[in-house]
Write a structure and sequence with these properties.
Low-confidence stretches: none
Mean pLDDT: 81
Structural class: mainly alpha
Largest sheet: none
Number of helices: 5
Order of helices and strands: HHHHH
Helix content: 55-70%
Shape: globular
Strand content: under 5%
Number of strands: 0
Length: 105
């Protein structure tokens, strides 16, 4: 059992207390952030969500707050993934580094 747990959790980042500048996982703050997402601009929305996920992944937070955040962004992530596929259709393989990575804002 110990080996299984070690295998499952070895790649998870260590969670620390969030700094003041970190992403706020309070439900009202998540709602405000979600309403301000620029969904018309695929690249900016993707980078914004990526940065939020990266920030929240290493924060200590209650499971309720984390689950609320993840449920809130599930549909936009699905839509963005679909749009990114369309964006890269009919492009030469292999895609350039610019088209295969998400760089921070």
């Amino acid at each position: 059992m110990q080996a299984t747990e070690h295998t499952l959790f070895k790649n998870l980042p260590e969670q620390t207390k969030p700094e003041k500048s970190a992403f706020n996982l309070q439900m009202s703050a998540v709602d405000t952030w979600f309403d301000s997402l620029p969904m018309a601009n695929i690249r900016v929305a993707t980078k914004t969500i990526y940065n939020a996920l990266k920030s929240t992944n290493s924060q200590k937070a209650s499971y309720k707050k984390r689950l609320y955040f993840l449920e809130k962004i599930h549909q936009p992530i699905t839509e963005l993934a679909s749009n990114l596929k369309k964006l890269n259709l009919n492009r030469k393989l292999s895609l350039s580094l610019k088209n295969t990575s998400v760089s921070p804002l």
